[in-house]
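Is this the right way to post structure tokens for a design question? Let me know if I should format differently. Anyway, here goes:
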């Protein structure tokens, strides 16, 4: 399978005390280390939404990092959704 065929989109909603603690910055750093593109943004209900595109193995590693307990703040749980990559993303932004 070619690299293009293995690209996927991970959307994750992180629940817990994850706003105002450097969580989006930490997530951006992990994503850039893995060569992923996308963003992390605060939601009005206190969650952080993470959208990342790249190789499935790298997206899975990011998801594991989100759940690892090593992030700033306190993660209660993470809800994930996988879909085909949509493209159009460059870099990894904190929104």
């Amino acid at each position: 399978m070619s690299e293009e065929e293995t690209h996927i989109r991970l959307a994750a909603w992180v629940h817990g005390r994850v706003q105002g603690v450097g969580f989006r910055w930490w997530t951006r750093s992990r994503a850039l280390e893995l060569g992923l593109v996308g963003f992390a943004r605060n939601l009005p209900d206190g969650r952080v939404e993470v959208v990342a595109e790249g190789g499935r193995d790298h997206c899975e590693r990011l998801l594991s990092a989100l759940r690892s307990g090593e992030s700033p703040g306190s993660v209660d749980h993470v809800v994930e959704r996988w879909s085909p990559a949509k493209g159009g993303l460059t870099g990894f932004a904190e929104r």
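Format looks fine. Someone answered above. Worth noting: The CA atoms of residues 11 and 91 lie 16 Å apart. The longest strand covers residues 7-17.
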